[in-house]
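CORE FACILITY INTAKE
Project code: CF-77B
Contact: R.S. (postdoc)
Sample description: multi-component assembly, two entities in total
Requested service: structural model of the whole complex
Turnaround: standard
Below are the sequence entries exactly as provided by the requester. Do not edit them.
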Amino acid sequence: MKFSERSETLQASPIRKFADTVSAVEAEGVKVIPLNIGQPDIETPADFLEAVRSYDVDVLAYQNSRGMTHTLQTTQLYLHNYGLDFDLNELCITNGASEALSFSVTLTCNPGDYILAMEPYYTSYNSIAQAQGVRILPMTTRAEDGFRVPPQEQWEAMIEQSGVKDRIRAFIISSPANPTGRVYTKEEMDTIVAIVKKYDLWLIADEVYREFNYTDRPFHSFAEEDSIADRVILVDSISKKYSACGARIGSIATHNPTFNERVLRMCQMRLCVSTLDQIGAAAMDNVDDAYVERNRRIYKERRDALRERLNRMEGIIAPEPEGAFYIVVKIPVDNAEDFVNWTLQNVRVNNKTVLMTPAESFYGTPGLGRDELRLSYCVSTDVLMEAMDIFEEALKRYPGTSQD
Amino acid sequence: MKFSERSETLQASPIRKFADTVSAVEAEGVKVIPLNIGQPDIETPADFLEAVRSYDVDVLAYQNSRGMTHTLQTTQLYLHNYGLDFDLNELCITNGASEALSFSVTLTCNPGDYILAMEPYYTSYNSIAQAQGVRILPMTTRAEDGFRVPPQEQWEAMIEQSGVKDRIRAFIISSPANPTGRVYTKEEMDTIVAIVKKYDLWLIADEVYREFNYTDRPFHSFAEEDSIADRVILVDSISKKYSACGARIGSIATHNPTFNERVLRMCQMRLCVSTLDQIGAAAMDNVDDAYVERNRRIYKERRDALRERLNRMEGIIAPEPEGAFYIVVKIPVDNAEDFVNWTLQNVRVNNKTVLMTPAESFYGTPGLGRDELRLSYCVSTDVLMEAMDIFEEALKRYPGTSQD
């Protein structure tokens, strides 16, 4: 029997691929500080588990494929509070943002088609596309330029020269951006909107980090852009904003009626989303702004402390992340994956070590990002500083080839 | 912007498509008896919600992509008790059997490929395949023959004449079968094994109804067949056996190491399965055989009562289901979907009506199954008898075209 072609190229998650090494290191009694994963350490609102605990039924039953009414209403209200109004039947609850992204690719792309994305991009975009025989067409952005959105002419030149212009179906963007932390300016958003219109593309707007904006500018959603209202697929999740990654609750919102009709069929295909997680998510309408404000303040302090430390290290390029809770760091080694592995196995400070994510698989262009890391700041500032001690020590002692 | 080709053909779930009509009927105060869906009415083991309620964490966090250790161990033990032994790393926990089936299609089929199935088959096989540009190649089985597995020569003739012999990658089967209720004999299984070997196919064995066997023969799993150990993808779910459809917990078990490596990448793509549902599912190692035995007895009584009633109606063909909790019924009307709709809107007995599932979309061959229904028996015998009163009344009064 044969495997499918697409299964040949599925990437191992760079965020999760070191799991076995971590287990081995931990078995030696060494503590591993996790700067690899976007798993918030902030407590989940107590309302979540309280709602679940008081859900008393004899039979844990299937729910509507589109989502439970209260969960949909909570999602609707949440978006409304950002000025984004959707009817209940323009929403659906998904198994995390991951399923929302997978459904979006299924409904918009044929196998062999392409999706535009700015690299570095959230690495799962690769596997989500690959699993469906779809490829990411990357537009490179660079640490040296602060990962800014390239000007429109540069997009047009890239698309025209790509040789696959007619097979580009969608533009996918995370905003605020994972991994770069960019909070896009209105001008940058205008460029993207212009490209989406000019090439008649869907815009898959992954805004799961909406709350994590450390700039003085307000965050703008792509769903505010009336001129592309029928082509925006707004993807969201409660994982980051409510520290609820283990509840697999995401959503899709769109004003495109045909998309809505078809996404319901995808929802029916997998019957429904976890009842208990939906019960908990529905209760998130109790969470007040203070929770979100406090988290933003905490993450901003961590970012500042992290940046301050990185700025003092030599040979490092680390543009300030304006949002989300990651930073991309260009380091003076030629293979960041080897560096991450070596650090994990060899560097100990107070019997602790650190796990980071090599950034290569956040790029679509072969070879790019090999000297970059993504660090998350989902641990306290104290632990973050311990991690930086280890990182600094590792950079000093690393015997592998340095780039210069 | 364009939609994908595959999105054009996605079917609406025939099991869920009457939701709006049902709401309207219920709004009039009429009770709708649900014989459409495989949603057990039996109580979920109390251990499930108890385990969830006592899960006390500050942060509801991501879990391992393959599954939580205790949940994997419970799955391992469950299979072991059926004589099926898998290492922990030969298992993964999925978002219901639905995701397990989707992953299996992704890893084994290219777009344009085919999967063999005996029709009538579980209707979601259509959408799961369609969503990936894959098609079901149906082998017809008939109510008149008790939906038996056709002899090997018939399979070979069908495959050779299909014109797509080289594009068939897998055989998918639900056993015990949804919707026909067949519990396959050893001889029938041998035929399937022979076909799978002869045409070098994967065997996707969907055994979520394993516990629901009303025959005196022991149930045999395709995973017992040593000669195809490397090509069997065993799909399971706690939904039916533990009345826990709202917990989206399924699993994949396989001895094929390459499949296992690749399915882990699919698991990583969507990060993890619901933490709370996994906590509940892990506690299912507390459920004793008495729970399962009692349920089997209850369903068997319902089946017998249902069959007895159906046997007394004229013009009906309803082979005895040996397992699962469905029966396929051939009725003397030319369009069962119209009949279902008409019944829902027009027939009332004691202010109740009944919802049934038209069976056409359980078939791949156009036109087949148009005069068939699938009835589930997930309600008490008393309610089932009320439903049969309504069904009988509907058959008498139906003004639509009868077949003869």
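Facility notes:
- Chain A touches chain B through 82 residues (CB under 8 Å).
- The mean pLDDT of chain A is 95.
Invoice: internal transfer
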